[in-house]
Amino acid sequence: MTTTTDHAATTTAMQKEEGINGTNGTHGTHGAHGTHGRGGGYGAYGGNPLARETTGDSARLPAFGGEFQPGSYRPQRKFANPAPLGLSAFALTTFILSLINLNTHGVAHPNIVVASAFGYGGLVQLLAGMWEMAVGNTFGATALSSYGGFWISFAITLTPGGFNIVEGGYKGETPEFFHAFGFFLFGWFIFTTLLCLCTLRSTVAFFSLFFVLALTFLMLGIGYMELREVGGAMVPHPTLVKAGGGFGVIVAFIAWYNAFAGILEPSNSFFIVPVAHFPWSDKGRERRGKANAATV
Q1: Cβ partners under 8 Å of residue 295, min gap 6
Q2: In angstroms, rounded to a whole number, what is the distance separating the alpha carbons of residues 126 and 152?
Q3: Angle, nearest 10°, between helix axes 83-101 and 138-158?
């Protein structure tokens, strides 16, 4: 977990670097964590270990889910951080569908999620992915754009009477349709697992998002492949679908957590949320090196 002492030391080093490079100490970038502007605003309440600062081309910042960056990076954008928007869109749509998968309050049909899947989880998340591409974040652009496409394709599949995929192609919710939808979910499980491997050197909060999401797709994929007879009809495995719904709710809250960490900055908050860097990450090794140096 990032500490106030680490951030203070990093900030001092960056400020010295600015003096050497001849900069005037004005921080122009103000995205997800913004900068503290002039006067050291973080010190007023103990420092902000999630703050992001740009002091030149040599400045590299540690991995952070609020920026959708799985490794150290150089901030290059000149406009707001699109990651919290994409994460929020993904979280809300996932939350709604997962509650339906859990059969919450007897709601079992996913029709209500179609609007959110088209508008928020789909279009808005896709746009956030495009903006990630504009700021040079390959991982963020790939992930957010892909999951935006996932929600749009999901909505197309389930649009009642619109694209006629279920009724026209599979003659209704037949075993063939459920198995085909299982293939669709397994494909996303594979893709999510690949993204998860890219976050192993980032933070616990960021890695957890993709790890639990992969479990969600796996449970749902198996559930749609292993059908059970309920009321004389073959349906997806109820227990596995509910398990996927439970994991999905957890995913939604983890996504909101990362988005929240990305939105917080000194201008809007007096506190921060921990993201917990892995010990083997760049930030973890840096912190361990400082601890070893202090004991010598």
Answers
A1: none
A2: 9
A3: 40
- Six token digits for residue 162: 């619109």
Residue entry with tokens 């001092």 = 12
AA letter at 151: W
How many other C-beta atoms lie within 10 A of the C-beta of residue 176?
12
pLDDT per residue as tens, the chain (296 positions): 444 444 444 444 444 444 434 444 333 433 434 444 444 443 443 443 334 444 444 467 888 787 778 878 777 667 788 999 999 999 999 999 999 999 999 998 898 999 999 999 999 999 999 999 998 899 999 999 999 999 999 999 988 777 888 888 888 899 999 999 999 999 999 999 999 999 998 899 999 999 999 999 999 999 999 999 998 899 999 999 999 999 999 999 999 999 999 998 888 888 888 888 888 887 777 877 777 777 76
